[in-house]
Every structure is written in structure tokens, then in C-alpha cells.
Amino acid sequence: MKQGNGKLLLSNGCYSEIQQLAASFLKSRKCECIPVGSDYTKGNTVSGVLSADHWLERITLNQSVFQSVVLGSNGPGDATFKLDTAKFFSGESSMLAHIHSQSNSVGGRSTVCSCLLLICGLLMLAAMPALGLAAEKLPLEYRWEKGRQYAYRVKIEVNMEDYAETMSGVEQYDVTAAEGNSFSLRCSGNLNSVTKSKSRRPFLPPMRMHRHRSPFAGLSGSIAGAFEQHTLELNRYGEIDTVKGSSLLPHLLGHLSQINLIPLSPEGERTWSESEKSSISVISSSNRIPSPLRGPDIEKTMGAKKTSEYKISKQEGDLVTINVEYSYRTISTIDDSGPEVELTGTGQIQFDQKQGCVKDLSVNYKLIQRSENSTQKIPIMLTSTLLNAEELKEYKADQAALIAKHSAEMQKREEAARFEIPENIDDELKTILTELSTSNLLKRKAALQKLSQVKPAEGNRDISGILIGILESKDITVVQDASRALVVWSTKEDIPAMTGLLKEVNILGQESVMEAILQHKTPEGVTAVAELLKEPIKAHNASKKLIEYGSGAEDAVLKQLDPDQFIVLVNVFRVLKEIGTEKSLKKIEEVNQSTKNNNFRFQAASTVKAIEARLN
CATH number for the 395-615 domain, one of 2.30.30.40, 3.40.309.10, 1.25.10.10, 3.40.50.300? Predict the structure, then answer.
């Protein structure tokens, strides 16, 4: 008897019932029974044949799996067997048998048959524990109770061609109701994004026209969904009944709120799967900003299929390890290359039976988008870990601090809207300021726009003071309108307050605040704007405004010249090429003589050439 390539080979010396018995067992092990001639095993005879009084030479038992069994008999027929069942169960065994049939007597054949029957019986006994373990059910369910809180630290790493993006944060669940087989959750949390370039060159992250850069619909979603209360209703096996609100992630990863709520088997099976029809919509690459209520432009929508397969691989105490395989593929394909869009993933999930929830998970994804000319592959790593009691306490404290900070900012905004209307202004301005003092956002924005369109003979510190107060409140909804109005109404006396604003005002108001400062042509104001050349995000607008200001900003710009700060150097030279004079040429030559920085010398050469060409 010999097994090779997944097949068990029986010699001709066995009865058909022995073959059937062995075949029945081996069929369960996915092997096939084939009779062959007795000379098949020539040269592979196993020594150590014993007398009929010693049927078993030895049986070595290791974790309920036989390592070797050698049987022997004497008389008219003898048999020698050596079974390595440890390898046999892994499908890589070498099962050897040599049967010598010196006589066709009944006794000899009976002895051989008895030996084979015993071997098959031993194999079946050895296999029973493994088969029983595989068949044993293991019921898992979510044991979340009303009033409990759970929080997970989520991290998503996306490896793009030119840069890597890491999204991380905490997803929190508050159990608002739990009765019988169902419970309800209020979900909160978000992920912060950090982008890092893979090259040494300066890198500015792409502007996010949508909530996410993913080119797929259902992931960028309408901004309106972000303001809805996000709740889930589901049963103890993770089957979701109702979803209100949205927490959609980029790259086809689904909802943030559902990452840690994997479906479980209601029957307690060790292997289960989930499949559903879906769709994938490609978002247009147009740079047009989408309407907040309409969402992004959909280029096309394709039918797709989602499949998730789960298999319990290990159990240690209360922790159950589940292997997962995930796929999300479009029905449409690109020639023979594969689906036009597909997301596949494999990973492991640890489920805590005692707590009745996922303890942690780790999944490696690969997102592939194919076209007729190219194939883009994006590796994605997703991990999520349940916070322990101490970590959850610390997270709640941080959240409480953030809420307190937000409340203080909201109070500051409300106070900025409460101001006294000056008496020394005309009735039209009084009406505009009255509208500005309301809590109605649309009226406030309209009032600020009217103030920016007025053309007074000079600024008014009473009105500019109101506008500065609004900008200091960091009300993002009106910052652009208020900063534009400040250009019209600011005075020289406002310079200290406005230079203070430069550090806090966001990108929507930066350019107008710079303009308001520079129009008064004070040295401290010009210096404050020139110092922004050291800040990567604000340097572009500062360069633009300083160039518009002209050579009067030259001294302030030259003060920022630092040969060891490459980014600052580029920004300074960009301005000096446009406004530099003989003074700049002299300063550049002085630094050139004292520095060994080749980057400075290279940038300086092109700057000197541009200044000389402009002056001549």
C-alpha cells in the first residue's frame, strides 16, 4: 500500500471489503483508492516483520495523532506496514506497504485482512478528535448592554505612488437600547489625515474638493449627511436592520461605524460567509467644487458584488481568532485583465466571547482600478483595537476637554455678534450693522458683503473693531466676508490687532487681512507679512501680496534670507526676483561669500540674473 500525490495505492492481495473500508475512510480525507500490482513497492520493503503473537511493534501517540504503526504476521502470508499519519493528515505522507503472498490459503489472507482492518480502525480513531473539533459549533454574539460605551482606535494606512496617507482616530459606540436579540448604537468619531511625501522634494497635499479624495461615489457623499445623527440598529449577530446618518470612508472601505461590527453566524458555524449585490460609481475628476447638498458629480455607475468569508481558526480561552477574506468587484471587466474596479483583503479578527465584541482586527487590502491603458494598485492596511478601561477613561477626558474648548469658541462667536452700534454713522450703515448683530447666518453674511461693497472716504475704527472681533471668534462661516470688509474699514490704529490676526486667521481670510495691513504702509505691518514667508502654508499668499506691494517691502523680505532654510530661501527669492533692487544684489553677494551652501548659490544665481535683467 502506498500513497502519493493524494492517492492511496492498495496491492492486489486485499479483499474488496478491505478496499471499500479503506476507500470510505480515505474519501473523507479527499484521497482516491487505486488497486495496483504487488511489484509496485519493489525495493521499498520495510524490515522488522514480527510473529503473529505480536501484532503491534509499537504505537507512538502524539497529540492524538499516530506517528507510526508497524504490523506483522507470520504463516503462509506476511505483511509489513509503516504509516506516517502525521504527514498523511497533512496530505504529504509516504504510506508504504509490501504484501508477500506466499500462499492463497484462507488463513494467510485472513491475517492480512485483519491487519488492514486494524490499520483503518486506528486511522479512524486518530482522526475522530480532529473531525469532532471541526464539526463542533461555537456560538458567538454581541453582548452589548444599554448604557455601556465601547471605543476603538482605528488606523488606515494608504500607500499611494507619490505619497503615503495615514488616517487615524477613535470610533465610539454608545449603547442607547438593548432588548432581547436587538440593540441600538449611537456612533461618533472621525479620522484625522496625515500625508507624507515619498520624495525629498517639497510636498503639498492635494486639495480636497470632496470630503475624501477617493474616486468612488458613496464614499465622498454629500456634506448634508455629515450633520445627521448617526445611529445603528442591529441584532446580536451583527445583522444591521437600520442605519441613520453616514460615516463613509474613502477607497471603498465602507462605513467607519461598521468596521468593528462584523457579521456572526446565528447557527454558531465555524465557517460562514456573506454576499450581496452592490454598485460602484466613479466620481468625475472635474475640479468643479460640488454643491454641499448635491455631492460630487457621478461619471458612471457599475454593478458590483461584495463577498465576505469568515473562518474560526483558533480559540484560546475567551479569545476566538477569525480569518477573513473580503472582495468587492465590479461585474464589468477590462479585457482579460480583470474587474474594472476591485477591492480584495485578507486578515484576522479577534473576538472576545466574555465581552461579546471584537477585540481587535487587522486587514490588508489592495484596491485595483483598471483601464484600457493602465492599472493602478493601492495597498491599504486597516487596524482597529478596542480601548481598555483606562484608555477609554483617558479618551473621555480628552473629549470633554475638546467639548469645553468648542463651547468656549461658540460663546466667543455669540459675544462677537453682540456689539453696540456706533452713533456717528449714517442710517444705512446702522441698518447693516443691525443685521450683522443677529444670529441668522444668511443675514450676517449678507450684512458683511454689504460692508465690503461700501466705499467710504476713510476707515472707521468702530466698524473695523467689530469686524476684528468677528475674525477673532474664528467663525469659519463668515471669515471670508469679514476679512474682505476689513480691507474697506480698517485704520492704521488697527495694525497691532490685525498682525495678531495673521497667526490665527485661516486660509479663507489670510489674503484679505494681509491686504488690509499692507494698504497702511507701516514698517511693522510689512514685516509681519514678510515673516509669513517662513510658514509653508501661508507663504504663497504672502509672496503674492508682497510682490504687489513692491520694492517698499524689500528690507523686510531681506531680513528673512536664511541660506540654511531651503523652503524659506525659495519663497524669499521668489519675491526678490520681482521687487529686488541693488540692495538685494549686494545682500545676496555678501551671503554668497560667507556660505558654502550650494542650494543657496544655485538659487542666488537665478535670482541675481532676474533682478539685473529687470533693472537694466
Answer: 1.25.10.10
